[in-house]
Specification:
Distance between the termini: 44 Å
Number of helices: 12
Structural class: alpha/beta
Number of strands: 10
Radius of gyration: 29 Å
Largest sheet: 5 strands, parallel
Length: 421
């Protein structure tokens, strides 16, 4: 097994020694690099390529937020998970600064040994996921380059065929080439054109298959990370909360400051549990795997309404609808993207969603009463979100249509044929 490499940057040498001792007690084979300054830390990060970087927030030369931003600017370092460390209370404003700096997580000092071990394992999973995504991206780029080269060659062949055709026509005018020879030449050129079009179509199909595979890999990664967050970190945080409650019940009444501190810790711990659950749900809601597409859509609709105060009427027919996992995932992601677009652009006050299955197809319809837009605007405003929804429908063998009118809202309809059920 590959050794874990960790870089810790802190201007306090005692903190570095304590951290190194604790980590090597948890992971004896781990390699720990330490730096007392931001500049030295950046140099070590570039040179050693660690798996995880722990940063102290308060440092004289450059604080942890500024250093995290610098690290994430570097293409060589941006995939390395960063954990910010602080001895101060972690309030909502601090959480926002952590996210804005680009860090993956934060820990409060002094470190809890169990929490530190869980954090290191979680960051290693994030690093692995980042590297896998990078690898997939490189493979996609290579295949796109190969297909582009093939397409360029085919286009060059077509260009040459057009030149040949022009030359044949010129020869016909000058030397009265027989009609039979001209027809034969045109036939050959037509065959070449058909072959070029066939090759182009095949390249498009291969690119679409590759995109589908990448989406499937990403969905599996999100599912695994969400499950690990819920089952591993969530369970440990819950156990820690029970231990705190046990400890609080046994503190003598003449130590109110200790009781208050324990209550504060319990509150922070419950906020963390809630945050873990929210992150896990955003990555891959467990209800989609446990209860199916109908329950997952109802849950997502409730989340949308709770967040925006926009009422949403939902119809699932039949109520116990089932879909193959790969189709259910695509339909659920289409619903998520549609709600995101409504929140960002529509200014709607009402949404109607229906998912109906008959003998031949599933039909998803999402209608809002927002600002809407014209058919011309739909063409002009093609976005990655709309393109992504259309591509997801196409990967399921279905169709995607969007209609809008200024002041009359927007309607999205996805139809997917039912086969093999």
């Amino acid at each position: 097994m590959q050794k874990i490499k960790i870089l810790v940057i802190d201007d306090n040498s005692n903190n570095l020694t304590t951290f190194q001792t604790m980590v090597q007690g948890l992971f004896p084979d781990a390699v720990i690099y330490t730096a007392l300054s931001a500049r030295k830390g950046i140099g070590l990060a570039v040179k050693e390529d660690p798996d995880i970087i722990f940063l102290d927030v308060v440092m004289p030369e450059m604080d942890g937020f500024e250093l995290c931003i610098e690290l994430k600017k570097d293409d060589r370092l941006k995939l390395i998970p960063v954990v910010l460390n602080t001895a101060f209370s972690i309030d909502p404003q601090m959480r926002i600064k952590v996210l804005e700096a680009g860090a993956e997580a934060f820990l409060k000092k002094p470190f809890d040994q169990s929490e530190l071990a869980t954090m290191i394992r979680s960051m290693m999973r994030i690093k692995s996921a980042n590297m896998l995504a990078l690898h997939q991206k490189e493979i996609l780029a290579q295949r796109v380059s190969e297909q582009t080269e093939k397409l360029t060659n085919e286009l060059e062949r077509r260009k040459q065929a057009e030149i040949i055709q022009t030359e044949v026509q010129a020869k016909l005018k000058k030397s009265q080439i027989s009609l039979l020879n001209i027809l034969e030449d045109l036939k050959a050129q037509n065959i070449a054109r058909l072959e070029s079009e066939k090759a182009l179509k095949e390249s498009h199909e291969k690119l679409r298959d590759l995109a589908a595979h990448i989406q499937e890999v990403r969905e599996e990664e999100r599912k695994e990370i969400a499950l690990n967050l819920h089952d591993d970190l969530g369970q440990k945080l819950t156990a820690l909360n029970i231990d705190l409650a046990w400890l609080a019940a046994r503190i003598p009444t003449d130590f109110p400051e200790v009781s208050d501190k324990l209550i504060s810790m319990q509150g922070l711990l419950m906020e963390t549990v809630t945050g873990v659950k929210q992150i896990s749900s955003k990555l891959r809601p467990s209800i989609l795997d446990d209860l199916g597409i109908g329950a997952a859509i109802i849950w997502q609709t409730n989340e949308f309404s709770n967040r925006t105060d926009v009422p949403c009427k939902v119809s699932i027919i039949p109520e116990d609808m089932t879909m193959p996992d790969e189709i259910g995932t695509q339909v659920f992601r289409i619903v998520q993207e549609a709600f995101t677009n409504i929140m960002r652009h529509s200014e709607a006050s009402n949404v109607v969603l229906s998912l109906i299955a008959n003998e031949s197809k599933w039909r998803l319809r999402i209608k809002d009463n927002g600002e809407g837009f014209s058919e011309e605007d739909i063409v002009d405003k093609q976005s990655f979100g709309l393109t992504g929804m259309e591509e997801r429908a196409r990967l399921c063998g279905g169709t995607f249509t969007i209609k809008g009118a200024p002041g009359k809202g927007t309607e999205i309809v996805v139809e997917i044929p039912i086969s093999g059920q």
